[in-house]
Specification:
- Keywords: Metal-binding, Oxidoreductase, Zinc.
- Residues 198-340 form the Alcohol dehydrogenase-like C-terminal domain.
- This is Alcohol dehydrogenase.
- It comes from Cladophialophora chaetospira.
- The chain is of the alpha/beta class.
- It folds into 2 domains: 3-162 and 327-374, Quinone Oxidoreductase, Chain A, domain 1 (Alpha-Beta Complex); 165-323, NAD(P)-binding Rossmann-like Domain (Rossmann fold).
- It is built from 12 helices and 15 strands.
- It has helices spanning 41-47, 72-81, 103-106, 154-157, 163-173, 198-209, 223-232, 250-257, 281-289, 311-315, 329-341, 356-364, and strands at 3-5, 14-16, 29-38, 62-70, 88-92, 136-140, 145-146, 189-193, 213-218, 240-244, 271-276, 291-299, 320-323, 348-351, 370-374.
- Strands 3, 4, 5, 6, 7, 14 and 15 form a 7-stranded mixed β-sheet that branches. A 6-stranded parallel β-sheet has the order 10-9-8-11-12-13, sandwiched between helices.
- Helix 5 crosses helix 6 and helix 5 (163-173) packs across helix 11 (329-341).
- It binds zinc ion (ZN) (2 copies).
């Protein structure tokens, strides 16, 4: 089969036309015919050698494919979940073959019994096991997301499997109610730092569609694509306030978006929560300062050497600082269903599998949106 294999760190992927196909599925495994596979920042981090995991490896931990065959345990899971041969599913990287015994697996907030996405004994597709940059892949029947019929195309599903679920979890952690209709009418504000990036432009769409006001912060280069995203949101787009952080300070943005506070009550004006997506001190500072007192700051990314932060923000302003990493599988499914039903779509650029190294070059040049391998494209 065709596959792209990372054989050395800091080198391009090697294309193979005769890579061995995976064996028949065992246990909880499903064999998937991959249709589309998306590139994530973590793929770039892995390829740089910073994660100290083994090679060779086939990357991509956000992909979509068609179910071909089942291991014996997977057959039972499929019956319970209403999955059958020929169904299109979304595949996140986490968690392949969790142990079923640890606290993560047992206390899993309503995911399938014994299935914990943060089980440290589980494999991660695209990182510790082979992922989606190949024609066929073994995945765990418990990790996949069902795709509503007629809902989403494979190239649209793939970017939701890491970027989508991560930003969905960040929004829930930021206090955005993802139960349909619940957020409507509440005049609440979430700031999204890095709003024009892969996760950010999905987060803007989810938050606006869920009825929240969004302060969408990015820098000049990313704002063109963000403008198109806001336009496509129609009425919901009217709740999105775009800020170019190169041209407007956080103080000026607050003055423009919120009513002027009474003297001495400045802490009463600002966002209820903020989500930090870029690995930057400037984004973190903006995200903390844009909050009103008692607000919540949710970190998704951070610089290698960490941030400098003002403990006074936590103590005197009572800001809560939280972090998220991907999300539970019930969140993954809720996010896919919501995206299908409310026209939330990643801005994508597609490449054939043979063009993966061109995709990676474009990624490092700062291409906007999500870059996706479409297995159906011929070079
Ligand atoms: Zn990822
Ligand atoms: Zn476990």
């Amino acid at each position: 089969m065709r596959a792209q294999v990372l054989e050395s760190f800091n080198k391009p992927y090697t294309f193979k036309s005769d890579h061995p196909s995976p064996p028949s599925p065992k246990g909880h495994e499903l064999l998937i015919h991959v249709q589309a596979a998306s590139y994530c920042h973590t793929d770039a981090v892995f390829a740089s050698g910073a994660m100290q995991q083994g090679l060779p490896r086939i990357g991509s931990h956000e992909f979509a494919g068609i179910i071909d065959s089942f291991g014996p345990e997977a057959e039972k899971v499929a019956q319970k979940r209403g999955l059958k041969k020929g169904d299109l599913v979304g595949v996140p990287g986490r968690a392949f073959g969790p142990c079923g015994e640890c606290t993560e697996c047992v206390e899993n907030d309503g995911d399938m019994p014994g299935y914990g996405v943060w089980c440290t004994r589980a494999g991660n597709l695209g990182l510790t096991r082979d992922g989606g940059f190949q024609e066929w892949c073994l995945v765990d029947s418990r990790q996949v997301a069902k795709v509503p019929e007629g809902g989403l195309k494979p190239v649209e599903i793939a970017p939701l499997m890491c970027a989508g679920v991560t930003v969905w979890n960040a929004l829930e952690t930021a206090g955005v109610s993802t139960a349909e209709g619940k957020g409507n009418g509440e005049a609440k504000f979430v700031a999204i730092l890095g709003a024009g990036g892969g996760l950010g432009h999905l987060g803007v769409q989810f938050a606006a569609r869920l009825g929240w006001n969004v302060v969408a912060v990015d820098t000049t280069g990313a704002l063109g694509m963000l403008g198109d995203v806001v336009k496509d949101l129609g009425e919901d787009g009217k709740r999105v306030h775009v800020v170019d952080a190169l041209k407007e300070s956080v103080e000026d943005a607050k003055k423009r978006i919120f009513e002027a506070p009474a003297q001495g009550l400045e802490g009463e004006k600002g966002c209820d929560s903020s989500i930090i997506l870029p690995e930057s001190q400037a984004a973190f500072d903006f995200g903390m300062s844009v909050l009103k007192n008692h607000g919540t700051c949710v970190a998704v990314s951070f610089p290698k050497d960490g941030w400098k932060f003002k403990p006074g923000d936590l103590v005197f302003r009572h800001i809560k600082l939280l972090g998220v990493l991907v999300g539970r599988n019930h969140q993954l499914q809720a996010m896919v269903d919501f995206a299908a039903g409310h026209n939330v779509r990643a801005r994508i650029k597609t490449y054939p599998l043979e063009g993966l190294n061109t995709l990676v070059e474009d990624y490092h040049k700062g291409a906007g949106g999500k870059l996706v391998v479409d297995m159906g494209l011929k070079q």
